[in-house]
Structures are given as structure tokens and as C-alpha cells.
Amino acid sequence: MEMSRTVREGSVGARIVIFLAVLLSLRGPLASRAGPDDGSRSILLDNGLRVFLYEKRSLPLVNIVMAFDVGSKDESDGTSGLVHLLEHCVLFRGTATRTGAEVTRDLRRHGAYFNARTGQDLSVFELSLPAEFAEVGLRNQKDILFGLSLTQEELDLEKDVVLEELSQMEDDAPRWALDRVLRDLFPGHPYGRSVYGRREVISRATAEELLAFHRMFFTPDNGALAVVGDFQAADMERLVREVFGPLPRSGRAREPIPEAAILKKSVFHRERKDVEGGTLVIGFVAPGFNDPDQYAMDLLVEIMGRGVHPLLPAALQAQRNLLQTMSMAYFANRYGGAVVISMRVEPKDLNVARNEAIGYLKRAHGLSYSKSDYMGEAAFTAFDFLESAKNQIRFSSSQAEESGLALAASLARFMVLNTREDPGRFLERIQAVRSTDIRKAAMKYFGKGESISVAVLPEQGGRGRK
Fold first, then answer.
1. CB under 8 Å to 115, separation ≥6 — which residues?
2. What share of the chain in percent tops pLDDT 70?
3. Amino acid 368: pLDDT
4. What 3 state SS string does 41-92 have?
5. No. of H helices and E strands in the chain?
6. Residue 258 half-sphere exposure, CB side, CA atoms within 13 Å?
7. Which end of the chain has fewer CB within 10 Å, C or N?
8. 267-406+416-458 matches 2-244 in CATH topology
9. Which CATH superfamily does the domain covering 267-406+416-458 fall into?
10. Is the pLDDT of residue 13 over 70?
11. Is the pLDDT of residue 25 over 60?
């Protein structure tokens, strides 16, 4: 899960962003094929900054994305919310050389789009602007990301924005339920803290505390830079080395984080809010970013909840037309993943919908997914769910690669999260998955039915908000 906020124009709303196309299609294929022949190159600066350059000449744009290995996993109960607050301050509160208003003015004057995201694993900062201003973009990123300057007055103003976002999340049934599910899936693990943070921590934060947090994590050896766009790789490498090379290495050793454990028992939370209708979110622990099971899970989620003929909503509709809407997503974090199902259902149907969904997934290891699962003439008439899912993921990959900004974000994310010596090409790994692999993943992650469910119902005695 990651939170994202675009440039403010009077709105303080935060949105949950699921990088489905990026996560599904670009978990590592480009980084594994870097080389001078295709206009890409991978670089490691002396200060530890990982850099990936990729020439994409279809549009006269340059996309610059920096990812730092800091998220809610790096907080404690006493600092929960500082990463989210820090993201806001870095993006909008200025540096030692420019105020926040001057940063925004300079970027807009050069036709730039900029944004930031906070997640459980990473903080990601994006910038896209015309290729002729590539140096402006690089120097801006260096200035705002590594040169944060902050007064208490500025921090207090930004606190109001972050606290308002927290209030909006709490009033939004699907977002609140998703946040609760993702926290409860990882009891006792660093992923068990909300990305939004704790209100009391945010309220009492000081500028000195936030600047110390910034100095600890916003260092070149704790980050990765991806640049995608209309440039010559050799020229861009020289410029990157000139701009980012002088930054000092921190040399700080990271505290080890354990892999998330499989959930030991199911929990069902019910909450009443001022809402109309019912919201149900169900979560399962799933393979992490570097787990070989990720490829089978990508396909299983595509088959169950996202494909041309998704099986799970069809099964729920067959049971007394239970669903209004349904979505299914797979979050692959470094130390463990999550599969999340979100539904809109009538309040009276919440229990039945939950039981039917979990029961269907528990039986998923016994289903047929490809033509190879059938004998004789049946193989000619059976729908090949597995091949359809592979085709959809290939299509999503092609779409994602068309966006230079999405591509840069994926590459930066990959450089920080990947721990495999040979990650291979993602689409080749997807193509190699067989029906038996799907069934094994279904048994391993859904077979026992352990899950976290959160239902949001209208307040008693009323029909809820109109």
C-alpha cells in the first residue's frame, strides 16, 4: 500500500494508490536486461546511490524518480506518522536555498509535474518535465530531497494537512477498512503500523525530530534514482554524477527486519459508521517481493478477481446475487505481501458474502485453470483461465512501459526492494507458471482460510448517510 498526494490546489485529500500495472508487469524485467545496446545502463555511485538510466525517445520528456528505503516499517509506536509527515514537508516546505513556494513556482515555470508517495516499504518522489530542462529537474530533486530546511511554524502548517488527510481516511469506509486489514494482517511485525500514522505522534512532532529523521534515512546509500526519457544515456550519466556524486555516504547499517509470518487465526472486525450500504474488506498474507511464489500469485489474483472472466465475483453472484462491486489486489512488499478483496454489499449479506468468498478461495486449489487440466474433447471447449491471465499481464506490461513516469517509478522501486542476484525477466517467469503452480499457491496462501475481515455497516437505528 502506498499513499500519494499531487500538488495542492486547495485540496488536502490523500488517496490510496495501487500500482497494479506497475506491480504486475514491471517487478524487475527491465533492470535485468540493462546494457548499452538498448540505451539503458545501471550505475552505482561512490556514495552508494543506485542509478538506472533508460532512454525512451517517444516523447520529449524526462521522468526522474527517487525511491528511499524508508516507510512505515521503519517507524516505532513513538514515531508512527513521521514518514508520512516528512513526505509532505520534503515536497512542499522548501530547502536551505528556496522556500516551498519558490520550489513550486520554479517547477511550474518549467512545465513540471511532481508528486510523492509513502508506503510500508518506501518513500517515492516523482518529477516529470520537458527533456530540455533535465538538468533543472535533477538539481531540483537533489535540493528538495537532501536539503530540507524546516521551521516549527512550517511544520505545524503541514501537520494540519496530514491530520485532515487522516480524518478523511477515517471517514471513508473502504480506505479505513483497507488500512485496518493491512495493519492486522501483520501483528507484531513492522508492517502492522498504519502508513497514515498516529494522530498523537503527528500532533506533537517537532521540527528538530523530523529533521533528525530526515538525516537518518534520506541519504544516497539508502536510495535509488531512475531516469527515463528523451536523452543520451552517456550524457545523462555525466550529469547525474555531477549533481548527485558529491553527496556524502551515510554508512549507517540498517536494523534487520524479519519476514512476515503466515497468519495464525482469522479475525472478523465489525464497525458501524455514518455510511450508507455495507463495505467488506478481506485480507490474506501473500508472498513478498522476492518470493518465487509471487508469479503464481500474480496470475491467481488475475484469474480470481481481475481478469476477463474473474471467478470469485461470478461465484458470489451465483449465491443469491451478493455483490454490488468487487476488486482484488496483490501487494508485494519486501518482507511479505497481502492479497486484499474489497466489496460493496448489502449489510444483511455481509456475513454470507464473507463466508462464501473465503470458502471459495479455500477450495481454489482444486479448480481447473488451463486446458491441460482437462481430458479429451473437454480440453477443446474449456476456457483457459491461465492463458487468459498471462495475456492480460502481458498487455498490462505493454501499457505500463508506455508511461515513462510509471516505468521510472517501477525501476526505482525494483532497485530498492530486490534482493535476488538473478531476478530473471518477469514476463518469462510469468509465462513459465503452470496450472499446478497456481493450485500450490492457492493451497499455501488460501487453503486454510486464515484471514482478516473488516466490515463497515451503517449506524444502528438509521439508514446511513445519503
1. 4, 5, 6, 7, 91, 125, 126
2. 89
3. 93
4. EEEECCCCCEEEEEECCCCCEEEEEEEECCCHHHCCCCCCCHHHHHHHHHHH
5. 17, 13
6. 8
7. C
8. yes
9. Metalloenzyme, LuxS/M16 peptidase-like (3.30.830.10)
10. no
11. no
Query: What are the tens digits of pLDDT across the range 292-341?
Result: 999 999 999 999 998 778 999 999 888 677 788 899 999 999 999 999 99
Strand-pair category, 323-333 with 223-229: unpaired
Which residues have C-beta within 8 Å of that of residue 153, sequence separation ≥ 6?
none
Q: Which helix (H) or strand (E) holds 124?
A: strand 123-130
- Residue 220 is classified by DSSP as G
For the segment 38-94, what is each residue's pLDDT rounded down to a tens digit? 678 999 999 999 999 999 988 899 999 999 999 999 999 999 999 999 999 998 888
Q: Which of 25, 16, 200 has its CA nearest to residue 120?
A: 16
Per-residue buried b or exposed e for 45-55, using 16+ beta carbons within 10 Å of the residue's own CB: bebbbbbbbbb
The pTM (predicted TM-score) of the whole model is 0.87
**Which cell numbers in the block locate residue 310?**
474473474
Closest CA to 398 of 428, 427, 423, 422: 427
pLDDT at 377: 67
Tell the CATH superfamily of the 2-244 domain: Metalloenzyme, LuxS/M16 peptidase-like (3.30.830.10)
In total, the chain counts a number of residues equal to 466
Of 333, 346, 348, which is closest to residue 258 (Cα–Cα)?
Answer: 333
Residue type at position 263: L
Q: Which three cell numbers stand for residue 260?
A: 512476515
Q: Which residues of 161-200 are buried (b: 16+ CB within 10 A; e: fewer)?
A: bbbebbebbeebbbbbbbbbbbbbbbeebbbbbbbbbbee
The answer to whether the beta carbons of residues 1 and 194 sit under 8 Å apart is no
Q: What is the pLDDT of residue 461?
A: 58
**Cell numbers at 43, concatenated:** 550505475
Q: Which of 259, 257, 266, 276 is nearest to 464 (CA)?
A: 276
Q: Residue type for 297, please?
A: M
C-alpha cell at 241: 554524477
**Is the confidence at residue 37, as pLDDT, over 60?**
no
Closest listed residue to residue 170, CA positions, set 194, 191, 193: 194
Q: Alpha-carbon distance 167 to 45, whole Å?
A: 42
Residue ranges per structural domain of the chain: 2-244, 267-406+416-458
SS3 call for 272: strand
pLDDT in tens, 237-268: 999 999 999 999 998 888 889 999 889 899 99
